[in-house]
Design a protein that fits this description.
There is one protein chain. This protein is mainly β. It has a single domain, classed as Neuraminidase (6 Propeller), CATH 2.120.10. 7% of the residues lie in helices and 42% in strands. A hairpin with a 4-residue loop joins β25 and β26 (351-359). The longest helix has 14 residues, at 11-24. The chain is globular. The two termini are 21 Å apart.
């Protein structure tokens, strides 16, 4: 059962679950029973020839206490890094040691810079590759072992992209990847994830003539070809500014975003056995352009733009195996509400890290750490 819990419950909830289980089934303590030999001194504990306690004595030893879980808490991190921006990408490498940031925008300024954040010492370094993708915002990125940071699509002013680029940290170089087959229409505000089949999957998005999409496509790195994987039947409404991710069970999950005439959505879907299914449950208030990061057994969601256009600072866990979302309470003041920020998971450090975004004060360049995960 513990192994099942580890697969489905994030570490910061697992400690609590174990502690509750250890306490709930324990028998109540009783008063000692009087002995007919109460006047005799107690016999010393038996020992093995080596002086170690006997197995029966060891079995009655006090159990090791379960440590109290560290409470969730936000802390602002003072680290000089990229200038203020929104709609960038920030992606952790396969070793969990470095997170690579690319692009984004500050108003009409569109960035094409590449940054590395060292998760062990919390420092930023601007990289200087000889070539780089054209500057953009609203693009998608994933880490692919043996290839590196893979970037897709986005927008720069009136231009929309459907290109694929790969950054190799060992060479400090960007390379455009070949693409043929059922190429996606150039788009902004799509969503993406690396599937269990090793392919790069994208779904939905928005393009220059105002069209929003509901298609799903996959790119095969071995062949350099796209295929159209859009299922028949019902599907999530056309949208952009949403997020998607692969669950531990190998299903593509999609949540929230924006559609024509509706500033923010609150629906949740999974692509299961070749068909989209809507997940009916208690969900966070509607939002678009929220920050998110994968934890064990679920996805953490922070902030985003609300249906009234305001900016949220709430924190939620969307568990893979539960229809109802879980509200998380860090117990202290959260970062200012925002949209267009990025959230990454530092698994070794047991924390998530937030950077950038936009709110009523403009674009942001602050970095925040959520400890206790």
């Amino acid at each position: 059962m513990l192994s099942d819990m580890r697969r489905s419950v994030p570490p910061f909830l697992l400690i609590v679950a174990i502690a509750l289980g250890a306490c709930s089934g324990a028998p109540a303590a009783t008063e000692p029973v009087a002995s007919s030999r109460a006047s005799e001194p107690p016999a010393p504990p038996s020992r093995t020839p080596s002086g170690e306690p006997t197995p029966s004595e060891a079995a009655t030893a006090s159990p090791t206490p379960i440590p109290e879980p560290e409470p969730l808490a936000w802390t602002r991190l003072e680290a000089d890094g990229p200038t203020a921006r929104e709609d960038h990408t920030w992606t952790v490498d396969g070793a969990g040691e470095v997170a690579y940031l690319f692009g984004g925008r500050d108003g009409a300024t569109v960035f094409d810079d590449t940054w590395a954040f060292d998760l062990r010492n919390d420092t930023w370094t601007q990289l200087a590759p000889s070539t780089a993708p054209p500057g953009r915002f609203g693009h998608e990125a994933v880490w692919v072992d043996e290839i590196g940071l893979v970037l897709f699509a986005g927008q720069a002013g009136p231009s929309f992209f459907n290109d694929l680029w790969a950054y190799d940290p060992s060479a400090d170089a960007w390379t455009q990847l070949p693409a043929e087959g059922a190429l996606p229409t150039p788009r902004y505000g799509s969503c993406a994830g690396l599937g269990p089949d090793g392919r790069f999957w994208i779904s939905h998005g928005f393009t220059q003539d105002g069209t929003r999409f509901s298609d799903t496509r996959a790119y095969d790195f071995s062949t350099g070809a796209w295929t159209d994987e859009t299922p028949e039947g019902s599907r999530p409404v056309e949208r952009c500014l949403h997020g998607c991710w692969w669950t531990d069970a190998g299903e593509l999950a999609l949540y929230a975003g924006q559609t024509t005439g509706v500033t923010a959505l609150d629906d949740r879907w999974v692509l299961r056995d070749g068909a989209w299914e809507r997940v009916e449950g208690v969900l966070p208030p509607a939002r678009n352009l929220y920050a998110r990061a994968r934890a064990d057994g679920g996805t953490i969601v922070f902030g985003g733009q609300a249906i009234d256009g305001g900016f949220q600072s709430d924190l939620w866990l969307l568990r893979d195996d539960e229809a109802d979302a879980l509200a998380l309470d860090p117990g202290n003041e959260p970062p200012p509400g925002r949209a267009g920020a990025e959230l990454i998971m530092d698994k070794e450090g047991g924390r998530a890290i937030l950077f950038g975004g936009r709110n009523t004060d403009g674009r942001l360049d602050d970095t925040w750490v959520l400890a206790g995960l």
